[in-house]
Amino acid sequence: MFLSELSYKFIIDFGRFLKYQESMGNNTVMKHIERLRKMINLAFLLKLFLSY
After folding, report:
1. pTM score, two decimals?
2. Distances (CA, A) of 1 to 8, 10, 22, 24, 25
3. For a pLDDT cut of 90, what percent of the chain falls above it?
4. DSSP characters for the chain?
């Protein structure tokens, strides 16, 4: 998946996917979402998102 393809729907679906994994609680899911957010923010700061 390219960074430009990320959407709000993807993030919500990713959270749901993690939530329904057998051994993941809410805190674990939120930690994964937080890590994803940090990576997206870093990519944005490094100008890895390209606008076409």
Report:
1. 0.69
2. 14, 11, 25, 24, 26
3. 13
4. --GGG--HHHHHHHHHHHHTSTT--HHHHHHHHHHHHHHHHHHHHTT-----
